[in-house]
Amino acid sequence: MLRGVRSFQLESPFQKFLLFYRVTETTLQVWRVMHGARDLPRRLIESPVEPV
Predict the structure, then answer these.
(1) In 3-state terms, what secondary structure has residue 6?
(2) Which region holds residue 14: left if phi is over 0, alpha if psi is between -120 and 50, else beta?
(3) Is 51 within a domain?
(4) Residue from 30, 28, 31 nearest 45 by CA
(5) CA 24 – CA 19 distance, rounded (Å)
(6) 43 contacts: CB under 8 Å, gap ≥ 6
(7) Region 11-32: what's the mean pLDDT?
(8) Full-model pTM
(9) Considering 14, 25, 46, 52, which has the largest number of Cβ atoms within 10 A of its Cβ?
């Protein structure tokens, strides 16, 4: 499920956030944007919540 997921820390003023993404041959898929203080290992295996 997490295979191929990469991450990086955003720059100021959003430095507390991490962006998780995947790169394919033709697309960049933003998988999640999460606050770094979260329980990342547990949160990353949960299904993302769809926006309302």
Answers:
(1) strand
(2) alpha
(3) no
(4) 31
(5) 16
(6) 34
(7) 90
(8) 0.68
(9) 14
Q: d(Cα 45, Cα 5) in Å, to the nearest integer?
A: 12
For 1-52, strand residue ranges (E) read 6-9, 17-23, 28-35
Structural domain includes residue 1: no
Overall domain count for the chain: 1
* pLDDT computed for residue 49 by the predictor: 64
Chain-centre distance for alpha carbon 19: 4
Give me the amino acid identity at 20. F
**CB burial of residue 21 (10 Å; 0-12, 13-18, 19+):** middle
Domain holding 19, by residue range, is 6-45
Number of residues in the chain:
52
Q: Identify whether 22 is part of a domain.
A: yes
